[in-house]
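Weekly structure sync, notes
Attendees: PL (lead), two postdocs, one rotation student
Agenda item 3: pending single-chain targets
PL asked that the sequence for the first pending target be pasted directly into the notes so everyone works from the same version. It is reproduced below exactly as submitted, 103 residues in total.
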Amino acid sequence: MSEIYYALNPWWEGKDFPVGISRPRYIDELSPKMKRRQIEVLTGSRRAGKTTILKQLIKQALKDVRIPANSATRSGHSGHPGAERRKTTSFNHMVADLAPVFA
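Predicted structure, written out during the meeting:
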């Protein structure tokens, strides 16, 4: 399971990652909210750009704010072929697999 989460979070290993079409309007609006240290939820239609915006926010945070790479985590069950076969109930296994990453 950890290989899936490393694939979804290439910045953990210092790898570059694509961020799609630039969405400065959304990034400018969301960036200040990220400093509030609370959960923000992006909702929208399928294929509307939620993951693209999330990747752009992560890339900006890693570059401008200089946060540690392992403090930005993308999870979910889309975007990786292996994740499609996993059930949400495997969350406990994911936490156990990733525990050394955050130690």
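Discussion points:
- Residues 2-102 form one domain.
- Confidence is low (pLDDT under 50) at residues 85-103.
Action: rotation student to compare against the earlier draft before next sync.
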